[in-house]
């Protein structure tokens, strides 16, 4: 049923899993973009993992929600930036199982994406909490965890923002096996380099581990789109090694894998001023891909990643490259009325409402504050 389980059948009974995603996602050539760049560019369409809201999270949730169901939790607690795709994807999947989603939000620059994602939250039943910054988020998580454990009478299931835990990483270990099988089926040599966005790191860590286990020959390049304290080489190596140990503990036939921080190929030059700040390179990449392929990207993750790929293509004409599209391609989610969000969110939509900002981060770096409107 999943390429990972085909490779290691014992894992099927040992690893929590619930089928959620439409897999395999298509692997297709980007013919017009290739013609314009002189490289052979392919895209793994992970935007199509789910009919309601696709993207990379759904692969992670196959394993995470397998665990949620096994533990019998009724409330899922998670969080993200104001424009988080992760919180939306969590709510879409949680609703499928009749579970409640509680989400904490921290500041990020306001883009059209943020407005849409926040408006889409009330119809999904998300209980949204504005937390300001990471400190507020951590305190809110503690309080909400206790509150909902008491209210629901069951332990709350906590998903770290972005779902970077070991179970989430397995989603992209599976994707690596899936890709290997697709190249083989098409009798096409594997790409020389694969590009993927790196936020909370789970997607990249999973691809790296899966690439090692499945015996990929090409490079796997992560494009850092968030500050270095969140995404860095030692952390990614630790995540890969932890997931490798976990898999081997479940099934001793899984070969041992150890990755050092030096082996992690993380590209640092595409973040710009900070997380979610649209850079000119990302804007150009989004426009280029929309014009040539009609594929919608955004500027926080996939635009910056595509910008890195386009630079590589310019330096390596004729190379075969793979872009992992992690952005939900499905039709936009239904928007609700922003008045349905709690009051602390209202000044985002109506600047005449006075906003108090208690976020300590904005003190030393105001670019983190949502009041700096970037539209
Ligand atoms: C569209 C998109 N691409 C890529 C990522 C990064 O994935 P990860 O957090 O696993 O590094 C995210 C994370 O939220 C995302 O929303």
| Radius of gyration, whole Å | 20 Å
CATH class of the largest domain: Alpha Beta
The number of helical segments is 14
State the end-to-end CA separation.
43 Å
List the domain count as a whole number: 2
Strand content: 5-15%
Q: How confident overall, as mean pLDDT?
A: 94
Major beta sheet summary? 6 strands, mixed
The helix-and-strand class reads: alpha/beta
CATH topology grouping of the largest domain: Rossmann fold
SSE ordering: HHEHEHEHEHEHEHEHEHEHHEHH
Which residues sit in consecutive blocks of at least 5 with pLDDT less than 50?
A: none
User: How many DSSP E strands?
Assistant: 10
Describe the 3D structure:
- The protein has 375 residues and is α/β, with parallel strands linked by helices.
- The chain has two domains: 3-56 and 164-325, Rossmann fold (3-Layer(aba) Sandwich); 57-163 and 334-368, Rossmann fold (3-Layer(aba) Sandwich).
- It is built from 14 helices and ten strands.
- It has helices at 3-7, 11-14, 31-37, 57-71, 85-96, 112-120, 134-152, 166-186, 202-214, 233-250, 280-293, 302-315, 346-349, 360-364; strands at residues 27-29, 40-45, 75-81, 100-106, 127-132, 157-158, 193-198, 219-224, 266-267, 320-325.
- Strand 8, helix 10 and strand 9 (266-267) form a beta-alpha-beta unit.
- Helix 4 packs across helix 8, helix 8 packs across helix 9 (202-214) and helix 9 crosses helix 10.
- It is globular and about 55 Å long.
- The structure holds pyridoxal-5'-phosphate.
- The site of pyridoxal-5'-phosphate has 17 residues, from helix 5, strand 7 and helix 9.
